[in-house]
Design brief:
The complex is a heterodimer. By secondary structure, chain A is of the alpha+beta class. Chain A has 7 helices and 5 strands, in the order ααααβααββββα. Helices cover 43% and strands 13% of the residues of chain B. The complex binds flavin mononucleotide and FE2/S2 (inorganic) cluster.
Chain lengths: 160, 554
């Protein structure tokens, strides 16, 4: 049980409100992902301990749900919506353009850890398709010609 | 804040109405769609401009009124100028807009868009000029969703009051029966029957669940209601909990909808503070509380049994029925689950009575339906129409027909990954659960995608099937394996390497999946393929290696 436990940040406060609630494992994991951007193994170990469940139970859940990440995300996250409306309005081309520009496949982080590129399901703005979510900000009616610009603006923010 | 009793609600409503119905106000649509288009900047600029001009005009952030194509939207009502809706705004336009509207007291024509007369949102249930009727969306775009007083001003929690004071739990279900309300999550099962099953079960604990997973990859009706009028869904959940005798209720909302989650959590806190939730609700002996649980990106979790597994904190695997959730649901206790839109109808039904609701719609499908219309139309967005409205009215009258300069409309797709396509020649069809089923599609949860001549039917079938294959939980073989095989065949066909035998194989596997899959995901996954084949087999054969001969032979 001692594997990595000591080096992990203390999460007992983060998940405190979920410890006594029935069926709250997924909620605790959400809380953790919101804090760290992903669910580190060391933290899962700690959670197993706190909630008194086997680590395998936690991984069973983590690997079932698309939303949870086991690796740290890039500094910037670019999510291209691949819902029906965006798909019909050219989202696959946007994914391609971002992939080419960043030199990674969808679902990957650039080697320098700067960008994480993913395709997501309808983010609920179909009226504004095609939609790209850049670091939590939704951008509407995105055109392939804007791809470079979007990446550049992320880098600029970095410098400020 | 002292807890309210049944008698406190009416005086509170009168006070709240004074605030909501002030003479001068400006409303800015600040749902996810509005914010995406830049509403926050417009809102801030408005505030600054008004402060500079020392004008006492209230600026209110509201939910989405449905005109997503024209976001950001600002509605202005000041004395001297007719109430006007403006769209496609930017912060830099605000100064000009206010100069024209407030100073010159004229309508700024360049930004004017259809307003309340087209949406019909002011009066619950009153038809608008464009034939929309708003029951579910009638507060969206009007109230500040973070303020319970606004909701109370719009007769909020009066349905609950009537349920507790007048109807009793059996009476609530009786009203629901009179209303004819059917599930808006896709299946269309009569809601009163579901509630009655659970009400009759004897158990120390029962649960009520709101399905806010909204899995259809091209739709967002439920999100807009959760964001724009959260208290309506909370009130629906309280009435449902009361009727079935639940001890606890859960909202299950997709994690991808952070704003909806925030607004519902806020609404629950406000309701609790006023004694609309918790112990002895409104001073009666009914006690009940609500909590939020988040989804985590799994489409199958929209299916009710899988959803319950997920609420229990496990993998979202469906389970075979029986036992039905009404007998053994969440943690083995009787449970009822309803869709967001179903629940959002409940307060209005209780407030106005079941008979009132039954005046809308057709013989078998009562009330209204919200659709998220997207694809190739001029006015993409959310609409609410009475059941029985024709597809022509939806596509042409309400949504303005194909986007400027684009091609003829070829078909609409309804029902998302479980639905099908309806060719334009059937657009005189009156929308109802039955009529869409007869055409080989389904009502579904309300996604409606308008496709034109350029959209390929094989591609759309592939898109939906690919979605289901990715989302199959893998528990049963027909869905896990059948889906993959079908996708392989479709890929082959779309690459121009398919043969007529492949089409026959597609049909064969489809039927096997429909019959043998464990849950609705696998049972309905072949629908988009079957329905595109039914109406547009020519688009498939045109891609076949032996296509020309095959077409000739037919
Ligand atoms: C694969 C699958 C996905 C579903 N997704 C949803 C969904 O996202 N939202 C929803 O309300 N119902 C969904 N349903 C239907 C639910 O199982 C359930 O019937 C519904 O929530 C009941 O509510 P209603 O009676 O109010 O319609 C789905 C069903 C299946 C088979
Ligand atoms: S399909 Fe992209 S926002 Fe809905």
């Amino acid at each position: 049980m001692s594997e990595q436990l000591s080096s992990a940040p203390d999460i007992s406060r983060t998940v405190k409100k979920w410890l006594k609630k029935r069926g709250s494992l997924i909620m605790a994991l959400h809380e953790i992902q919101n804090t760290f951007g992903y669910v580190p193994r060391s933290v899962s170990l700690q959670l197993a301990h706190l909630m008194d469940v086997p680590l395998a139970r936690i991984y069973e859940v983590l690997t079932f749900y698309n939303y949870f990440r086991l690796d740290p995300p890039g500094k910037n996250t670019i999510s291209v919506c691949m819902g029906t409306a965006c798909y019909l309005k050219g989202a696959p081309k946007l994914v391609e353009a971002f992939a080419e520009e960043l030199g990674v496949q969808e679902g990957e982080t650039t080697p320098d850890g700067q960008f994480f590129l993913q395709s997501v399901r309808c983010v609920g703005c179909c009226g504004l398709a095609p939609v790209v979510v850049v670091n939590g900000t939704v951008m509407s009616k995105v055109d392939v010609s804007q791809v470079k610009e979007i990446i550049a603006s992320c880098m600029q923010k970095e410098e400020v | 804040m002292p807890k309210l009793t049944l008698d406190d609600l009416n005086p509170m409503q009168i006070e709240a109405q004074k605030a909501l119905n002030r003479e001068n106000w400006i409303r800015v649509g600040c749902s996810t769609c509005g914010l995406a288009a830049g509403a926050e900047g417009v809102y801030q600029t408005l505030k600054e401009e008004l402060a500079e001009r020392k004008l006492d005009i209230e600026v209110r952030r509201t939910g989405c009124n449905g005109m997503c194509h024209a976001e950001p939207l600002v509605e202005i009502n000041v004395s001297g100028v007719p109430r006007t809706m403006y769209g496609n705004l930017k912060p830099e336009y605000v100064k000009d807009l206010l100069n024209t509207h407030l100073k010159k007291e004229k309508i700024a024509k360049q930004w004017k868009v259809d307003g309340v007369e087209a949406l019909g949102q002011d009066d619950c249930g009153k038809p608008s000029a464009s034939k929309q009727v708003r029951i579910v969306l009638c507060n969206c775009g009007i109230v500040d969703p973070t303020n319970i007083d606004d909701y109370i001003a719009r007769c909020g929690y009066q349905g609950l009051k009537r349920a507790l004071q007048e109807y009793g739990s059996e009476g609530v279900i009786e009203q629901l029966k009179l209303s004819g309300l059917r599930g808006r999550g896709g299946g269309g099962y009569p809601t009163h029957l579901k509630w009655e099953f659970v009400r009759r079960e004897k158990s120390a604990e029962k649960y009520m669940i709101c399905n806010g997973d909204e899995g259809d990859p091209g739709a967002y009706m439920d999100r807009s209601v959760l964001e724009g009028d959260p208290h309506a869904v909370v009130e629906g959940m309280i009435i449902a909990g009361y009727a079935i005798g639940a001890t606890m209720g859960y909202f299950y909302i997709r994690a991808e909808y952070p704003l909806a989650v925030e607004r519902i959590e806020n609404a629950i806190r406000q309701a609790r503070r006023l004694g609309l939730l918790g112990k002895n609700i409104l001073g009666t002996d009914f006690s009940y509380d609500l909590e939020v649980r988040l989804g985590a990106g799994a489409f199958v979790c929209g299916e009710e049994t899988a959803l319950m597994s997920s609420v229990e904190g496990r993998r979202g695997y469906p389970w075979p029925r029986p036992p039905f959730p009404a007998q053994k649901g969440l943690w083995g206790n009787p449970s009822n689950i309803n869709n967001v839109e179903t629940l959002a109808n409940v307060p209005a039904i209780m407030r106005n009575g079941g008979k009132w609701f039954a005046q809308f719609g057709t013989e078998e499908s009562k009330g209204t339906k919200v659709f998220a219309v997207t694809g190739n139309v001029r006015k993409a967005g959310l609409i609410e129409i009475p059941m029985g409205t024709t597809l022509n009215t939806i596509v042409y009258d309400i949504c303005g027909g194909p986007a400027l300069g684009s091609n003829e409309v070829k078909a609409v797709q309804t029902g998302g990954p479980s639905g099908g396509v309806i060719p334009a020649r059937f657009f005189e069809t009156h929308v109802s659960y039955e009529s869409l089923l007869r055409l080989g599609s389904i009502m579904g949860s309300g996604g409606l995608i308008v496709m034109d001549e350029q959209d390929s039917m094989v591609e759309i079938a592939k898109f939906y099937l690919g979605f289901c294959v990715e989302e199959s939980c893998g528990k049963c073989a027909p869905c896990r394996i059948g889906g993959r095989q079908m996708l392989m065949l479709l890929n082959r066909i779309s690459k121009g390497e398919g043969t007529t035998a492949d089409i026959d194989a597609l049909k064969r596997i489809s039927h096997a999946m429909q019959k043998a899959s464990l849950c609705g995901l696998g049972q309905t996954a072949p629908n988009p393929v079957l329905s595109t084949l039914r109406y547009f087999e020519n688009e498939y054969t045109a891609l076949l290696k032996d296509g020309a001969q095959a077409a000739g032979a037919r």
